[in-house]
Amino acid sequence: MREPWLPLLAWWFGSAESPGDIAREKNRLWFGKKKSQDTDALHRFGGLVDLALKGGLSQWAETPQGWLALVLLLDQLPRMIFRDTPKAYSGDQRAQALVSHGLKLERDLALTPLQRTFIYLVLEHTENLHAQDEAISRFTALLPLLPATDREYFTQTLDYAKKHRLVIERFGRFAHRNEVLGRASTEQELEFLKEHGSRF
Q1: Global model pTM greater than 0.85
Q2: CA 86: distance to chain centroid?
Q3: What is d(CA 105, CA 109) in angstroms, rounded to the nearest whole number?
Q4: Residues 139, 108: Cα–Cα separation, whole Å
Q5: How far apart (Å, rounded) are the C-alpha atoms in residues 5 and 60?
Q6: What distance separates the 2 farthest-apart alpha carbons in the chain?
Q7: C-alpha 20: how far from chain center
Q8: 6-13 and 113-124 are packed helices; what angle lies between their axes, rounded to 10 degrees?
Q9: What is the pLDDT of residue 196?
Q10: DSSP assignment string, 22-89
Q11: What is the Cβ-side half-sphere exposure of residue 36, based on CA atoms within 13 angstroms?
Q12: Is the Cα dihedral 103, 142, 113, 72 positive or negative?
């Protein structure tokens, strides 16, 4: 019987072979903000996202690939399907718990370096300085595992991790989430949000 998470992983990572080619092929899906992509994610995997957000699919986390897929359902897909609403972050707490537990078991080491970036992104998404430090450490450790021709995407992920950390160090939270989450922004945060690239 085919593992139920395979369609999600195939859609997310595609069929290219090298990490660099996969990243070039899928970067717009991963980090673009396009309504048609968000709608596609909803139609394909909205039911699974709902199950994951309700605490279901726990058995997926028993294998590295299933663990990765469940983390995607909780961390990445809600940011697409529920973009610009509080529900975009509704899977974060469970995703963070799953990642913390899986890293203790070294489940990430059974994944490819590219797959591992989406585990470590969960650390980067937290409003916690210790987790931000760990994200930087883990992204840094990936670079020597790759040939120079495949490092561009990984260098960018490390750079973004450093930028996320600086925001948490400065404000203790992501200022760009305040409006969506109904949090009052400070004057310093409002000034920061006027800067280019402050909203990731």
Answers
A1: yes
A2: 16
A3: 9
A4: 12
A5: 8
A6: 56
A7: 18
A8: 90
A9: 87
A10: HHHHHHHHHH---HHHHHHHHHHHHHHHHHHHTT--GGGGGSHHHHHHHHHHHHTHHHHHTTTSGGGG
A11: 1
A12: positive
Residue type, 48: L
Which residue carries 């969506």 as its tokens?
Answer: 180
**Which residues have a Cβ under 8 Å from the Cβ of 37 and sit 6 or more positions away?**
28, 29, 80
Is residue 48 over pLDDT 70? yes
Dist. CA 79–CA 17, nearest whole Å: 27
183, amino acid identity: R
Vertex 159, ends 157 and 160: CA angle to 5°?
Answer: 65
Question: Could you tell me if 8 and 26 are in contact, meaning their C-beta atoms sit under 8 angstroms apart?
Answer: no
The rounded mean pLDDT for the chain is 96
- Name the 3-class secondary structure at 100: helix
For residues 134-173, b (16+ Cβ closer than 10 Å) or e, as one string?
Answer: bbbebbeebeeebeeebbebbeebbebbeebbebbeebeb
Contact 46, 54 (CB under 8 A): no
Amino acid at residue number 196: H
Q: How far apart are CA 77 and CA 90, in angstroms?
A: 11
Dist. CA 123–CA 150, nearest whole Å? 23
